[in-house]
Design a protein that fits this description.
This is Iron ABC transporter ATP-binding protein. This protein is α+β, with helices and mostly antiparallel strands and 351 residues long. The protein folds into 2 domains: 231 residues, Rossmann fold (3-Layer(aba) Sandwich), CATH 3.40.50; 105 residues, Beta Barrel (OB fold (Dihydrolipoamide Acetyltransferase, E2P)), CATH 2.40.50.140. The chain is 25% helix and 36% strand. It contains 9 helices and 21 strands. The strands form 4 sheets. It has a 6-stranded mixed β-sheet with strand order 7-8-9-3-10-11, sandwiched between helices. A 5-stranded antiparallel β-sheet has the order 2-1-4-5-6, covered by helices on one side. The chain has a 5-stranded antiparallel β-sheet with strand order 14-13-12-15-21, with no helix packed on it. The site of adenosine-5'-triphosphate has 12 residues, from strand 2 and helix 1.
Length: 351
Amino acid sequence: MAEVKIESVSKLFGEVKAVDNFTATVRDGEFVSILGPSGCGKTTMLRMIAGFEKASLGEISIGDQLVSSSKVKKFLPPEKRNIGMVFQSYAVWPHMSVFDNVAYPLKIRRVNSQEIQEKTMKALELVHLDQYAQRFPNQLSGGQQQRVALARALVAEPRLLLLDEPLSNLDAKLRESMRFEIKELQKKLAITVIYVTHDQAEAMAMSDRIIVMHAGVIQQVDEPTVIYENPANQIVADFIGLVNFIEADATEGRVSLPELGMELAYEAPFTGKGVVAVRPEHIQLSSSGAGVKGTILHRLYLGDATDIRVQVKDKVLRVIDKGNSYQKYSEGDAVVIDFDKLIVFPNEKLS
Ligand SMILES: Nc1ncnc2c1ncn2[C@@H]1O[C@H](COP(=O)(O)OP(=O)(O)OP(=O)(O)O)[C@@H](O)[C@H]1O
């Protein structure tokens, strides 16, 4: 178990700044996800923690040990960092039995054979594969193969577990059940985990905290509920969950939305032009009453909710309604809209 301290870390690949001034601390025993779109630098950051990539600038410490520093020119190779890793591809060796796959990290450390036997079986029990020890990977399902990779990452009792999209090759159902398994395992072992994903549902479900990245730069570090309810900026609001963006003009105590012909009492943290973000589940529809009027364009039945597009002047808003909207409204019906909750951001450039 260990705390991971990352201070002002940057990584340049020629002209490309893959990671730009990344600073974060992952606490001992914490499960932290690095979340962001493809190419935002998540894997590069993880590979620098593991030691497969050297940081151009900055420092990384694991526990009390400085493992990488551009200042004092220190760089500890991966095998000296005592880290377990699981990647996207299962990376289990097809010519080795499940037992030998999991035992491998102990064998290269020249651990004695009795200890290898005990520790390997213990790791296989942890991932519920002890009865499969003598099978070969091609006799296992995708989920079981990924559990072999997990057991192999844990067998040497690492102080830190790094996971890079470990579930992305699995089908949706298996992915969900593996989320629980990984989380349970992490709690049981009280191990520090850094988990890289572009899947927000995965990050939300498993993490104590999420680091949201965009174009190499950290946008927000917070608990999942805070990231969803109070995104730090437009980029985070857009990436996490669904959102309607509406042009806004903030004055003291009021926000006007010219695109909708709407004005709201709202104390924005700035005055001037900005953008209002409203989640689809925070828009209420009613068939009558005072307020801004719209027309139902489309509605899709989702079983537990209805996904609706409402035309308001020239703008189309997305609404997710958990009530009986599908029966209540038809396409072309007039509705009145209201917002339960909104966030106002100052104008910023979205890249
Ligand atoms: N070895 C390399 N040489 C040059 N550029 C690289 C190298 N590795 C990564 N990059 C670039 O650095 C940026 C970040 O890549 P990285 O793989 O870290 O992103 P990511 O967020 O993990 O994306 P994905 O989810 O697609 O894996 C990208 O622009 C990528 O093209």
